[in-house]
Amino acid sequence: MKCSDDFVFGTATASYQIEGAANEDGRCPSIWDTFSHTGHTVNGDTGDVATDSYHRYKEDIALLKDLGVDSYRFSIAMPRIMPTDGGPVNEKGVDFYSRVVDELLEAGIKPCATVYHWDLPQYLGDKGGWQNRDTAWRVADYACVMGERLGDRVDTWITVNEPWCVSYLSYGGTEQAPGLGGGPAAFETVHHVNLAHGLIAQALRGEVKDDAKIAVTLNLQVNRGDADAVHRTDLIANRVFLDPMLRGYYPNELFAVTKGICDWDFVKDGDLDLIHQPIDMLGLNYYSTGLVTMSGRPQFPQSTEASVFPGCSDIDWLPTEGPHTEMGWNIDPNGLYDLLVRLHDDYPEYPLFITENGMACPDRLVEEADPETGASVKAVHDADRVDYLTRHFDAARRAMEAGVPLTGYYVWSLLDNFEWAFGYTKRFGITYVDYETQERTPKDSFKWYRRLIASRELPVL
Predict the structure, then answer these.
(1) pTM score > 0.90 for this model?
(2) Which residue range forms the structural domain that includes residue 337?
(3) What's the pLDDT tens digit per position in 75-89?
(4) Cellular component per GO (predicted)?
């Protein structure tokens, strides 16, 4: 299937995962600095240096130009822009992202900027973070600044990345910063992040150029198995974001299944109107599927599942069939197809785009003779990643042929990077990074993707 010229091929990164320069040019600590410096990551890894992209962004944009992408999705770090509580805008932070945007445009690459990709300033974390309703307004104020400063040049704006993780893994569970493990308290965070999405969209709309696109990125759960369990997890993991953002209400069933653990009194008059703002596209991050069944256990015991999925503690997550990635996630391209078709069926007025898709592999850097020159070169032969991406692009093709209005596809990630609580032990990049030297080496998947982009031909399996 040949893609039209307006279909967007891209790749993506996030600020805390690549930038480093944690203490430079006025940046303040984020909740991820605190989390990673207090023993919550593998090997005690932190994002202090990461891939040093704060200093090497020109080198990384040269990689993007060589790759041939139409667009690059990056995120802006609020700690660089608003480093003090109630203080002035940090012009050095604004200037950095302005230079990134200009460099992208010079390379013929459309900037796609994510406003919030998890690195909340610690001073807001100290006031309760996303459990504090005021955080939504503070993040929207920062979004307004970025819209004003970059709005004439950025093609696409994403309000929030993966509110499911921001809420359930970070405040319900302990897997991600700040790791509060509050169980049902996650629902309050869900609502405040939903509010932030609407307020950010509203703030940007008043500042950016008329043809700029505004979107949100959701990591929706695709579960198989028992129908009742699938329905319950869909309510709590997916429709809790989709329905208020795209329809202006929370489903009544959600209140029924969470009765006794959450009274939803944090939803104030007018909130749903604020959340339900016009957006131009819906972004999806997709990696794998789950397998669920009703367990028959009593409701709401204290368990890991109860904290990460409050309201689902009588559901079991079963092992999935392989193969699996280095993250332990199953490889199920049909899940992407099913998700795209379902979203088009349920919310047909919204164009879709894939804002992340990729695979962690046990990549190994080798030195070998160049077949043409005989010179010694470095290489990474990541055949599993090439196969993974081929199968998922094929799933996207099938969805498009079924009528899904898919407008773009961003591979995760341009670079190996700091993989959150897993530190530097998991590699998702299509470019290998030697963390000792910061040398970048394009992998076979980079070269495969470059050929795909050049041909604009989606694979057929």
Answers:
(1) yes
(2) 8-455
(3) 999 999 999 999 999
(4) cytosol
